[in-house]
Amino acid sequence: MKITVIGAGGWGTALARLLALKQHDVFLWVRDPQLAQEIDRKRTNEPYLPGVSLPKEHLHIFTDLEMISQQGEIFLLVVPSIAVRDLSQQIFRILSPTKRAQSVFINAAKGLEISSLSTMSQVISEELQTERVFTLSGPSHAEEVGRDFPTTVVIAGKNLSLGKQLQQAFMTDRFRVYLSDDLKGVEYAGSVKNVIALAAGISDGLGYGDNAKGALIARGLAEMLRLGVHLGAKKETFFGLSGLGDLVATCTSQHSRNRKVGYRIGRGEKLREILASMEMVAEGVYATEAVHRLAKQKNIEMPITRAVYELLYEDANPLEKLGELMTREPKMEGF
Known about the structure:
N-(1-d-carboxylethyl)-l-norvaline Dehydrogenase, domain 2, 335 residues, eight-stranded mixed β-sheet, 14% strand, globular
């Protein structure tokens, strides 16, 4: 297969490497020409995936987005959620109507669009006028996938026949892929888990232990489930890879940017200072605003999300927010 990976951050680079090692013809788009030259020459992406060697065969580096019109018909969009609509609009202008109709677009971002509250697959489908859109999600840190650590993910879309082909395209003995038709559930899970990871990091920054983190994961799962089911997703999805699996990984991992941002907030740093010091995007920062707005709009109770929103955007005090969560009215446990 010919596969174009658009976005050379850590995750895009790790996926391009995986696919090239499977001997697919992979075209990796790198926005920065200087970085593209370095990756092509050194066969490593030191700023975003340091210490990982990239294959010389089957992996082609390019910088001119117009070239996608000459490449294959599988496009993997690996850019932050805030860039997905703009990228989709660029792709629409470049590809002919025939090529767009024949192509498959796989989203790898985990977030919601703040302005429209749309999922990434909805944004891509709207801009590219196609239903041939999938999302790849699950507990999958680039740092581990790039080093061939065992990883299991899910690919979700409406066309399961086409999904089976994509499943086989990605599958290796170290990268297992499950198939789902619950596109909504997979995407809502991927968005909310980043918000809960910020909360877990804040708890760590305050110096609290495993009891607090276990509670945040469990009650965060309840919030994720409550929102997703209300919006038409399947309950089972939230107990799977894109839900509970990714939630646990993101809340506990040393690789999690969202947990790291939360940790620094818990230690007293301001969000603007943290973001100014980071090269890579922590999706939870944007997801918090979108998920909070969506919960308010749909009148869904999401107290952890609300607390994280107030910490990020209203300069609330972490200790006060924890106190509010702990002293809420007693109730029966449930989802």
